[in-house]
Structure formats: structure tokens, C-alpha cells
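Whiteboard transcription, Tuesday session. T.W. wrote the C-alpha cells on the left side:
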């Protein structure tokens, strides 16, 4: 006992955190073991020795401990809580002893309360200790604690890993509730890579994480649209504002010309199928792609991590050329069942429509066409005035007498409507050390702002995670059904927007008897009649099943098997009604298209994660993976319906088409990843993956991909000690490596035949594609240098410079026709993306009642083609692919404005110089800009005052061009005889000598070529959008607790509240596909929603 007495002079309780032992970390998975066994396990891992009186430990209940790289002090605090034990220390010796009992002469009072995180979720395992003593406790699974206090001047210390330690004076309080906030340095945050989790402090790559609360600010079926402007380097481009519409995504620029450019999507470790699906999914055929992302309930998402550089993505090998987006869904938690209800209801509508983009009313229509006929020489011909000529033509062609009192129809108003949106989600989560669960169900409805459009989505999720000794297991199932009614986009007349811009203001929606006016070409109101109109329905079922199994071989060494099934079923039905002039004569047309995409994945990994001598941390992952993607489609069409009462194909009299196809590919992989950390100061990482794919030539089916990364935490150096007061963290990092792109189609390397050709009445086959046994992956070499700094524990700055070069780009290389083929796919091209991106997060102000946070992201990317298949550039009508230029470069005649004296359109002559010409055929094509923005990003703020919260987020692009191919008609100056005329043309047309304008003279039957593709229709696509704005109020907890409610928040939100565009932009919205092309796009709606978040 003499030895014991000497050691008792050591500091105890929280002072133990300052000893060497505090830095020791252990990984434990013990169930129902004695304290002796616990002490032995800690000793084996750390070398710490325990001294104790066996009599004091005898009779104490066994304990169960689950810890992953936790400090020894935290483990002991949890275990000793409630056992009247405490500990002293001396170096690497821990003395266990009985906790001091408060003297009976002092009347103790009980302090109780609840500890929650910043989302008001209960925090189990928080340590509460009386300052200066060894007396303490910890919160239970519900975050609740109680502690006897001897004196009213006591101070309680609340501590939890990853959270800021708080000290609170007891004074005369009997209840102290605490909300823990995250450490401002974020060093204990983690990066989810899909195959595992890495501490952000040790991560040498470039990645950014967005959590659920940011996703939920915006109301959209496709959660990817919430990321616009929130992630540096990420671009989300949407052609249409239709509910559930597909949105293309690029990370750090477009990296390929003929292969896929979308990132790889991984949900809970399972790569899912995201290719466009649908009979009319491609640009030019309707672009009605069904988006699998729109079938994921954002309420079920815990976080989204965007992986960018080689260190972050190389472990995905052949699929990671365009970056990786890792979606982590919500899982169960310890404690009693906790229910969350989220509900919101609101409306969507079109904001103020650009006056310039509207067509004129009837009075202006008659005025400008009368003027156009005069300019064409009609006035006085055959003794008739221009107005009489106009009326004669309209009477002859449309049977309308303009001299009568004709109603002017605003056709745009006829097809637009106020939409209705509602979303409901309920979830339950809870569990114990053996089994945790999360169950949810959701319903989403969005009626579109264009008649005939809208969607419904039903979703559900269940997640189970269990442990039994060294074995872990789990299962997650995500399922959803969406029912979508959408319209064609672009130039199809069944698109109401297209139809509207080809209807004159004197044409009426209905006849005098109330029936639809079918003399109107593709009358959009009739075609979209709910009962008798066209049908354009898509039903999409998605299912993701993910079982897993883990086995803790020894402490720090874990085996994991992860299996995955991703299933997408698409059922489309299209029916062209009697109001559709394209098919009404043949008795209507019905089409049924069914597609199924199945992805099967099995992954096995072994992970070794240990710390040696309190300074060397090693994390090694070895793995094997196999994946099979299968795709099938069945299509049938028939016409000749005897009645419009039933729509099934069986009721049609004439089959008009049928077909089916199947395709599949396999991928086999072996990979490893290693991370080394010395003293939380020096970090090294490396990864290697060896992929084999069925998609490539027999000589190149396998390929290696790799990365190396390093990181240096300068702020942990001793010579930086004097900067701690203002420089919380400073690190520099760098990485280099290669990744691949296998998104080239299923059979691009194989020799193919087309079957079905008839030879003398017999079936046969003809060669269709020549094989290339040497075809291989496009490879992207990625280099990245980054800096991360935290100032005053308030301001976080991350800056990255990157250079990504795509090599072996795949092209169709021309062949001699003597081979019987026109071309062959070869690896010949190169492309480069390089730029700078940054992320700024600032806690401008934070105190008890008020907080103010600011976020700013920005990216400047430069895309350049390095090498093409031949020396010659690839010239198209509007674009050019040329070495030294960006992939999305516009190439067309350059418009030179209007001759002030004659009103004639002018262009710059030839391919260079300032000489002008009025003959468009003399105007050579010139490079006139790029669809790529020079700079893009987003800006946002969050405010909180007591129970109130307010936030807004914006997104922007600068320096990009947008070309509207529909302007050849929308901005016509007379060539489309009697066609509708835009307000912009009416207000700005040349009328007399000396007029300075960019709109030529309006001439009926104009043949000047003013409608020819040229930079006349090229606009500045820069914009600033108020993406989302939210105002909320959380009711006081003391009131809610009386009715057994943990949290109740009500709010109002607004999406797309306004968009500021460049002066020369005309249209609904400047955002379009990454190519910069747009025409007759579905407007982006504004959403106003009222909602509540309820937890109990």
C-alpha cells in the first residue's frame, strides 16, 4: 500500500488527458468480459499497466466495450461510470481505486439534463465531470445524465470526441441541458471513400462533403441539383425544369469527346447504373431521359462526398476518370426509438417571363407584318394596301378575318400553370449494441408548371446493422417507384413550348362550340387534355440491396464482404391522340418501351488499422471486386385504335414496330490502399488497382491504375507554436496518379454483325463494325496540389490547383472504303483540364444566442484539346474541335450587326479581319466563344438567433456562351411568312435610316439570310441564381418537452427566387446542357414551400 500512497499524488480525472496515456488509442470489441480482461486488452495494445486492489473489483458486473481508435481515457470514463471507480496515473501506470464518496455531513443536490448534438439528436457517451475532482458520469443512450453535486460553486465539464469541450457553472441550477458543437478545425471529420472511411486530418486527397441539412434546403426530385454551387469543381447542368428531369454532372471539366463524362455514383459502397434510359433519351430525340437520381429520397441521405483527385478516385480505377460521387445513407443509432417526421407543402410557378422572349399580341403582330409586307413591295400592288394583303393571306391560309374583333391569345399563358408540390417523410431509428435500425418511408409529388407534366414518387428504406462478438453484419434496402408525366424537349411539336412559338395570336384555343380548335397546328392545350390528349408516362422502379458481413480477425484487422444489387426498371407508354396531327389520320399511335438495368457487385476487403508507439499510424486496405452490368430493352408500337377509350397495344389494329435487345459487361478488379501517419504531422498514401473489363480489346483487357499522395501539417511543428493563437491548422498536400474511363459502350472493341437483312427472302447478316483488339481505356493522369488553413478557429480556407490530362481518347478513325468499313475506333486523342478551385467557410460570429456562417466556392477551369485523330480540326455547323481550343467551342459566322442606312444584316467576311458583308455565304466560320464558364461557384450564408434560423445559397457562372438554335424562328425578321414575332424583334427592329440596332429590317418573305446560324443567336450565358432561401423557427424545448416532443421546427423556403442574367440574354433560363445549346426549354420553376421538422 506504500506504493499506492505514492502514486495518489498524480493528477486524476480529466487531468489524465494531459498524460502520455491520454494519447494512446485502442480498438476494442469486447462483450460481457471482466474488468481484468479489459485491462489486459488495453495493456496488449498500448503497453499501459494497471494497479488495483482485487477486492475492490470482485463482484462488479462484466462490461461490453465497442471502441474504434478511441482514447484510453474515454474508454475508462465510460466503463467506470456508475461503478464508483476512478483512476490515478503515473506515466504508463494506471491506478484503479474506489471513487471518493461525498461526506454525509454535506447534503448533495442532483444535477440532471440532456446532451444533444447541433441537430438536436441525443449524444450517448458524453463525459460530464466536476472540475477539479474525479467525480463524473456519462450520458446514457438517450443523452440523459444525472450527477450529485456537493457545492453550488461547482463547474461541470462536458467533453466528447469531435465536439468542443464546454465548462458550465452549476450555480443554483438543477437542470443543465447542453448542445455540443463540432470542433471548428474539423480535424476529426471523416471522408467516406466508398471502400472505407478515412479521417479528414489524414486524408491526402481532394474531396468535399455535403451533409443532409444542405440537401434539404432545396425542393427537387433530383438531389444532385442541390449541389449546384455548393461543391468546388462540380458543375450541374440541367436542360429542363421538368419534374424529375435528368441533370448532367461534371467534375473539373469535360474529360472526353466520345466516351462518358458523368462521374461514378456509389451508394453505400455499391456502384449504381446511371446511364440515360428511355426511348427518347438522347439530345435531338426528345431528351426525356429518366434519372435514377430522382428516385432517391434526399431525406434518407446522410451525406454526399465528391471525390476529385487521383488519391481520392484511383482506387475506383477504370470507372473514375470523371470523379466519384459517394452517397452515404442514414443508419440506425444507439438508444430508444426516435421518430422524425418531415413535411412540406407549397406551390411552383414561373417568375416574370423575359418580355423580349414573349411573342407579340395581335395588334403588334398586325402592325409588324403590315410593315413587313410594305418593305417587301406589297403596298399598292393590285390596288391593295399592305394591311389588306395581310388580311387576305390570313383569310386564305387560316380562315380568320383580321378586320373583325378577334381575341388576341396569349398562348404561353394557356400552357403554363401554377404547380403544386408536397413531400412527406417519416423515419424511425434506434437500437442497442447488438442491433441498430433505420426505417423510413416517403412520398413526393410535384405538378409541373407546364400542362401535362408532373411526377409522383413513393420511396422506402430499411437499414439494419448488428454485432455479435467479433462478427458484424448488416442489410440495407432502398426502393422507390416514380410515376412521371413529362413532355418532349427541344424541337418536337409535342413539346408545348415549341408549339406555342409556332402559333399566331389570332388562332384560338377552342372553337365557338367549345371544342378544341384542331386547325391550330399541334394545339398544345388539346394535345395535353387530361382525358383525350396524348399520354407520355414513365414509371421507374429502383431497388438497391446491400448486405454486408465483417469479421474482426484480431484487434485492428477486419475482413469485410459487401454485396450489392442495383436494379432499375423503366416502363414507358406513349400514346398519340386524335389531337396529334402526326398520327390522328392513322387512328392514333401507341408505344410501349420497357428497359431494365441490373448491376451485381461483390467486394471483399481486408483492413489493417493500428497505431504503434503512439506515433506511427498505419491503415492498409486490400480488396477484390467483381461487377456485372446487364441491360435489356423491349419495344413495341401499334396504330389504328378504333376508340380512344382504351390505350393498350392489344386494342390497336396495326402493329408498326417491335424490337428487343440485351447487352452486358463484366469488370474484375484487385486493389489496395495504404495510408501512413507519423505524429499527426507527416502523411503518405498510395493506392493501386488492376482492372479487367470485357469492354476492351483482347490485347488490352487489363490495365493498372495508381496514385500517390503526401500531406504535411506545418502547424504541428514546434517552430509554429507561436502561431497557435491565430493559425489553428495549416497543411499542404499533393497527389498524382492515373484513373480510367471504360464508358465507351458494351461492345466497342468487337467485330459486330447486323442481322435481319433479307437475301432472296431469307434472313442473313452483314458486317457492321470492325474489331480492334488493341482498343483500351482512356486514361486520365491527375495532378493536384492543395493547401488547407484554419485561422482563429473561425475561417477555413482550402485551395487546390489541378491538372488533368486525358490520354488515349477514343475516336472514329476513317478507313479506306476498300475494307468495307467507314471507320474504326482507336485510342488517339488527348485533352487537358487545369484550373484552380477554392472553398471558404467562415464562422463570422458565434455566441450563445447568435451565429453567422458564410460559405463561398469558386472554380476557374480551362479545357483544351491536345491531340485529335487527324491533323485537321473537326468542323461542325456550330462548333469546332480543334487542337488548342476548348471542347465546347462555338464556330460559326460572326454577326456584325445591321447597316444603319439600309437595315440589312451584316456579317464579318472570311475567317479573319474586320471587313463586313451582307452576303452570309461570304461570311466564314470563326471561333466566337465557348460554352465553358471561365469561373463558376456559389455563395451562401446561415444565420441563427435563438430559435430562428435563416439561410440562403446562390450559384453562378461567368464567361460562358449560350446558343439558342430556336432563334432562327423565334427571332425571325420575315422569312417565316406570317409566323409569330418576338417582342424583341418588334421593339428593336430597324425602321428608318440612322437607326442603330442589331435587329434587321422586317421584310415579309425575307431572303437576306438573317435566320442563318450565326453569332446573332449567341448570348452571354453568365448568371447569378438565388438557388434557395429558408426561414425557420424552432419552438422552445421547455414547451416541447411537456408534450414529449424533442424538436419541432417550422419553416418557409423558396427555390430559384430570382436569376440575374447578362444584358444580351433572351430566354427563360441561361442554364442548359454543357454544350451550351438550348432551344424551347422547359422553364425553371420557382418553389415556395411551407414545412415542418418534428422529432420525438
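and on the right, the sequence the group agreed on:
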Amino acid at each position: 500500500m506504500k506504493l499506492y500512497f505514492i502514486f495518489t499524488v498524480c493528477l486524476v480525472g480529466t487531468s489524465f488527458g494531459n498524460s502520455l496515456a491520454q494519447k494512446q488509442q485502442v480498438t476494442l470489441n469486447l462483450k460481457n468480459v471482466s474488468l481484468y480482461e479489459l485491462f489486459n486488452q488495453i495493456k496488449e495494445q498500448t503497453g499501459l499497466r494497471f494497479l488495483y486492489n482485487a477486492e475492490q473489483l470482485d463482484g462488479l458486473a462484466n462490461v461490453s466495450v465497442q471502441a474504434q481508435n478511441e482514447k484510453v481515457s474515454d474508454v475508462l470514463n465510460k466503463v467506470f461510470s456508475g461503478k464508483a471507480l476512478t483512476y490515478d496515473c503515473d506515466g504508463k501506470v494506471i491506478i484503479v481505486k474506489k471513487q471518493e464518496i461525498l461526506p454525509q455531513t454535506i447534503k448533495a443536490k442532483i444535477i440532471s439534463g440532456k446532451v444533444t448534438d447541433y441537430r438536436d439528436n441525443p449524444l450517448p457517451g458524453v463525459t460530464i465531470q466536476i472540475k477539479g475532482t474525479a467525480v463524473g458520469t456519462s450520458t446514457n443512450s438517450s443523452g440523459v445524465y444525472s450527477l450529485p453535486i456537493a457545492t453550488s460553486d461547482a463547474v461541470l465539464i462536458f467533453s466528447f470526441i469531435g465536439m468542443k469541450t464546454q465548462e458550465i457553472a452549476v450555480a443554483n441550477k438543477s437542470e443543465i441541458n447542453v448542445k455540443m458543437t463540432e470542433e471548428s478545425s474539423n480535424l476529426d471529420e471523416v471522408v467516406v471513400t466508398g471502400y472505407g472511411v478515412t479521417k479528414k486530418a489524414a486524408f491526402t486527397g481532394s474531396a468535399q462533403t455535403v451533409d443532409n441539412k444542405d440537401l434539404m434546403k432545396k425542393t427537387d426530385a433530383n438531389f444532385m441539383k442541390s449541389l449546384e454551387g455548393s461543391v468546388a469543381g462540380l458543375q450541374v447542368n440541367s436542360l429542363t425544369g421538368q419534374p424529375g428531369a435528368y441533370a448532367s454532372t461534371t467534375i473539373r471539366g469535360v474529360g472526353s469527346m466520345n466516351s462518358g463524362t458523368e462521374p461514378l455514383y456509389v451508394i453505400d459502397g455499391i456502384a449504381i447504373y446511371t446511364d440515360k434510359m428511355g426511348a427518347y433519351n438522347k439530345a435531338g430525340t426528345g431528351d426525356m431521359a429518366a434519372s435514377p437520381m430522382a428516385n432517391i429520397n434526399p431525406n434518407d441521405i446522410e451525406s454526399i462526398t465528391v471525390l476529385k483527385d487521383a488519391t481520392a478516385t484511383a482506387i475506383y480505377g477504370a470507372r473514375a476518370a470523371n470523379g466519384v460521387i459517394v452517397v452515404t445513407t442514414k443508419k440506425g443509432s444507439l438508444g430508444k426509438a426516435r421518430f422524425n417526421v418531415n413535411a412540406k407543402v407549397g406551390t411552383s410557378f414561373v417568375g416574370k417571363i423575359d418580355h423580349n422572349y414573349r411573342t407579340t399580341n395581335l395588334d403588334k403582330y398586325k402592325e409588324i407584318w403590315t410593315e413587313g409586307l410594305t418593305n417587301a413591295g406589297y403596298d399598292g400592288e393590285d390596288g391593295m394596301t399592305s394591311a389588306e394583303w395581310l388580311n387576305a393571306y390570313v383569310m386564305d391560309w387560316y380562315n380568320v378575318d383580321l378586320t373583325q374583333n378577334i381575341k388576341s391569345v396569349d398562348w404561353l399563358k394557356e400552357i403554363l400553370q401554377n404547380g403544386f408540390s408536397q413531400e412527406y417523410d417519416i423515419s424511425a431509428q434506434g437500437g442497442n449494441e447488438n442491433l441498430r435500425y433505420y426505417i423510413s418511408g416517403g412520398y413526393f409529388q410535384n405538378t409541373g408548371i407546364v400542362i401535362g407534366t408532373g411526377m409522383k414518387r413513393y420511396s422506402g428504406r430499411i437499414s439494419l446493422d448488428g454485432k455479435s462478438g467479433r462478427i458484424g453484419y448488416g442489410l440495407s434496402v432502398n426502393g422507390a417507384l416514380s410515376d412521371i408525366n413529362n413532355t418532349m424537349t427541344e424541337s418536337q411539336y409535342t413539346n408545348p413550348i415549341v408549339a406555342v412559338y409556332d402559333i399566331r395570336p389570332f388562332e384560338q384555343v377552342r372553337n365557338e362550340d367549345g371544342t378544341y380548335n384542331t386547325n391550330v397546328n399541334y394545339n398544345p392545350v388539346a394535345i395535353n387534355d387530361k382525358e383525350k390528349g396524348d399520354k407520355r408516362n414513365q414509371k421507374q422502379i429502383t431497388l438497391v440491396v446491400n448486405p454486408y458481413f465483417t469479421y474482426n480477425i484480431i484487434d485492428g484487422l477486419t475482413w469485410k464482404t459487401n454485396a450489392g444489387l442495383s436494379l432499375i426498371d423503366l416502363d414507358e407508354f406513349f400514346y398519340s391522340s386524335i389531337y396529334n396531327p402526326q398520327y390522328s389520320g392513322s387512328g392514333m399511335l401507341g408505344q410501349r418501351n420497357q428497359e431494365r438495368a441490373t448491376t451485381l457487385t461483390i467486394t471483399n476487403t481486408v483492413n489493417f488499422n493500428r497505431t504503434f508507439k503512439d506515433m506511427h499510424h498505419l491503415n492498409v486496405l486490400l480488396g477484390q471486386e467483381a461487377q456485372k452490368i446487364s441491360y435489356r430493352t423491349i419495344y413495341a408500337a401499334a396504330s389504328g385504335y378504333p376508340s380512344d377509350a382504351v390505350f393498350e397495344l392489344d386494342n390497336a389494329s396495326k402493329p408498326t414496330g417491335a424490337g428487343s435487345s440485351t447487352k452486358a459487361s463484366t469488370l474484375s478488379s484487385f486493389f489496395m490502399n495504404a495510408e501512413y501517419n507519423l505524429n499527426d504531422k507527416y502523411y503518405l498514401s498510395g493506392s493501386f488497382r488492376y482492372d479487367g473489363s470485357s469492354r476492351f480489346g483482347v490485347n488490352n483487357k487489363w490495365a493498372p491504375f495508381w496514385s500517390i499522395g503526401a500531406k504535411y501539417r506545418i502547424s504541428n511543428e514546434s517552430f509554429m507554436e507561436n502561431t497557435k493563437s491565430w493559425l489553428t491548422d495549416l497543411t499542404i498536400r499533393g497527389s498524382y496518379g492515373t484513373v480510367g474511363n471504360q464508358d465507351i459502350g458494351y461492345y466497342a472493341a468487337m467485330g459486330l454483325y447486323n442481322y435481319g437483312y433479307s437475301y432472296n427472302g431469307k434472313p442473313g447478316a452483314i458486317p457492321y463494325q470492325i474489331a480492334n483488339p488493341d482498343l483500351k481505356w482512356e486514361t486520365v493522369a491527375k495532378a493536384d496540389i492543395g493547401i488547407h488553413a484554419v485561422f482563429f478557429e473561425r475561417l477555413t480556407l482550402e485551395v487546390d490547383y489541378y491538372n488533368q490530362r486525358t490520354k488515349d481518347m477514343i475516336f472514329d478513325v476513317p478507313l479506306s472504303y476498300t475494307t468495307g468499313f467507314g471507320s474504326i475506333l482507336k485510342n488517339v486523342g488527348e485533352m487537358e483540364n487545369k484550373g484552380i478551385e477554392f472553398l471558404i467557410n467562415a464562422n463570422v460570429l458565434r455566441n450563445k444566442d447568435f451565429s453567422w456562417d458564410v460559405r463561398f466556392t469558386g472554380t476557374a477551369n480551362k479545357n483544351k484539346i491536345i491531340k485529335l485523330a487527324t491533323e485537321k480540326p473537326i468542323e461542325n455547323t456550330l462548333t469546332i474541335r480543334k487542337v488548342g481550343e476548348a471542347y465546347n467551342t462555338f464556330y460559326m459566322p460572326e454577326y456584325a450587326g445591321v447597316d444603319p442606312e439600309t437595315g440589312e444584316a451584316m456579317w464579318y467576311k472570311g475567317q479573319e479581319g474586320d471587313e463586313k458583308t451582307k452576303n452570309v455565304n461570304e461570311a466564314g466560320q470563326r471561333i466566337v466563344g465557348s460554352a465553358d464558364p471561365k469561373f463558376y461557384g456559389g455563395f451562401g450564408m446561415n444565420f441563427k438567433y435563438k430559435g430562428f434560423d435563416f439561410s440562403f445559397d446562390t450559384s453562378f457562372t461567368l464567361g460562358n456562351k449560350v446558343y439558342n438554335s430556336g432563334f432562327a424562328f423565334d427571332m425571325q425578321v420575315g422569312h417565316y411568312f406570317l409566323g409569330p414575332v418576338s417582342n424583341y424583334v418588334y421593339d428593336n427592329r430597324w425602321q428608318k435610316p440612322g437607326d442603330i440596332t442589331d435587329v434587321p429590317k422586317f421584310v415579309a418573305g425575307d431572303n437576306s439570310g438573317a435566320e442563318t446560324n450565326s453569332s446573332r443567336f449567341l448570348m452571354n450565358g453568365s448568371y447569378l441564381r438565388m438557388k434557395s432561401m429558408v426561414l425557420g423557427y424552432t419552438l422552445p424545448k421547455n414547451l416541447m418537452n411537456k408534450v414529449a416532443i424533442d424538436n419541432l421546427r417550422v419553416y418557409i423556403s423558396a427555390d430559384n427566387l430570382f436569376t440575374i442574367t447578362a444584358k444580351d440574354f433572351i430566354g427563360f433560363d441561361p442554364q442548359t446542357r454543357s454544350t451550351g445549346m438550348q432551344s424551347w426549354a422547359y422553364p425553371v420553376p420557382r418553389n415556395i414551400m411551407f414545412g415542418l421538422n418534428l422529432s420525438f
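Someone added at the bottom: The chain has a mean pLDDT of 88.
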